[in-house]
């Protein structure tokens, strides 16, 4: 494996090249493409929420083509079992007629895994993804097997009010680096989608990076320096989402039952480093935290009944918190 380090300039150029290749297939959705790429470069997992047909599956497939990594797709259904995801031991017979157990790897053994409509499966099956997402390994029959690196799960889910869906457990939600909302395309974007998809010619992304380069980019991102006051700002932002914190804003006390876990701060810091690199800087600014706040924290807030009754959303609460907390930081 090639472990050659890369420079910040090479990081930025490669990341922008990946965005351009994915943009050949995905119409608009520039923020979505960038945030998905940030998640990949952070070594995390992304949860995409949106109604069917908005190109969520095409996004991760195009990303896999642009980075020349092994792609796998798992269609989550109510009857899907954990062994259908991680794999199982099967009995095989050799030429001498002797039988033995042999591990048959499941579709999670890939670099980029699309967990399509993950909230259509039961919680038992959803939990089969926890070890893979957190530890990058799976355990079957008391034997732990590592997954190939880089490893990235992009899960899609339909809004919970749609028929046949199950809420994701909070422990699983917390293991997603970003939660991304997929917006409906504009009229102009719908026209371009029709032009691209109903003609004879189809455009495919070209590989502009490989797995070794992605791993080198992940390593470089973690080495970006961050000033103490910016780290403290991230910590204050996360603490401000806790309703029992003395400095929590009134909107949090009124509408939040539980705030972000420490993983929220980790996501803020690491995403801020990558945002800085994508902007051509080798230091993290407070504005980089602002750019990462919503996707990093929106799924880590558990709202109370009052919030649901009054139509308050996690995004609306976080926008107030970000404005209150980060405006104090110079």
Query: Order of strands in the sheet with the most strands?
Result: 2-5-8-1-9
SS elements, strand count: 11
Mean pLDDT over all positions: 85
> Which class best fits the helix and strand makeup?
alpha/beta
Number of helices: 15
Which fold name corresponds to the CATH topology of the largest domain?
Answer: Rossmann fold
Which CATH architecture of the largest domain? Answer: 3-Layer(aba) Sandwich
User: Any idea what the radius of gyration is?
Assistant: 21 Å
* Range of strand content: 15-25%
| CATH class division of the largest domain | Alpha Beta
- From the spread of the alpha carbons, the general shape counts as globular
Largest sheet: 5 strands, parallel
Could you list the spans in which at least 5 consecutive residues all have pLDDT below 50? none
Folded structure, characterized:
A five-stranded parallel β-sheet has the order 2-5-8-1-9. A two-stranded antiparallel ribbon has the order 3-4. Strands 6-7 form a two-stranded antiparallel sheet. A hairpin with a 5-residue loop joins strand 3 and strand 4. The protein is an alpha/beta fold and 330 residues long. The model has no long low-confidence stretch (mean pLDDT 85). It has two domains: 180 residues, Rossmann fold (3-Layer(aba) Sandwich), CATH 3.40.50; 102 residues, Helicase, Ruva Protein, domain 3. 44% of the residues lie in helices and 15% in strands. The longest helix is centred in the last third of the chain and has 17 residues.
């Amino acid at each position: 494996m090639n472990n050659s380090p890369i420079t910040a300039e090479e990081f930025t150029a490669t990341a922008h090249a990946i965005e351009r290749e994915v943009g050949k297939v995905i119409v608009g959705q520039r923020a979505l493409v960038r945030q998905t790429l940030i998640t990949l470069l952070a070594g995390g997992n992304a949860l995409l929420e949106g109604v069917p047909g908005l190109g969520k599956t095409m996004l991760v497939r195009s990303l896999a083509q642009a980075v020349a990594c092994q792609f796998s797709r798992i269609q989550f259904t109510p009857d899907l079992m954990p062994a259908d995801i991680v794999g199982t031991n099967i009995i095989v017979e050799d030429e001498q007629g002797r039988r033995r157990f042999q591990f048959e790897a499941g579709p999670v053994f890939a670099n980029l895994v699309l967990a399509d409509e993950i909230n259509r499966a039961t919680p038992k099956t959803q939990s089969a993804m926890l070890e893979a997402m957190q530890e990058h390994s799976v355990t079957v029959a008391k034997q732990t097997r590592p997954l190939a690196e880089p490893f990235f799960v992009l899960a899609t889910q339909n809004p919970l009010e749609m028929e046949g869906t199950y809420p994701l457990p909070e422990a699983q939600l917390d293991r997603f680096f970003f939660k991304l909302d997929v917006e409906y395309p504009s009229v102009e974007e719908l026209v371009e989608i029709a032009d691209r998809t109903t003609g004879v010619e189809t455009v495919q992304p070209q590989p502009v990076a490989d797995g070794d380069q992605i791993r080198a980019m992940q390593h470089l991102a973690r080495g970006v320096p961050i000033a103490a006051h910016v780290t403290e700002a991230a910590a204050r932002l996360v603490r401000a989402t806790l309703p029992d914190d003395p400095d929590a804003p009134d909107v949090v006390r009124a509408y939040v039952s539980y705030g972000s876990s420490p993983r929220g701060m980790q996501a803020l810091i690491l995403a801020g480093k990558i945002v800085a690199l994508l902007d051509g800087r080798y230091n993290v600014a407070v504005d980089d935290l602002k750019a990462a706040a919503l996707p990093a924290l929106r799924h880590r807030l558990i709202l109370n009944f009052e919030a649901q009754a009054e139509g308050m959303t996690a995004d609306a609460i976080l926008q107030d918190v970000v404005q209150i907390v980060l405006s104090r930081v110079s």
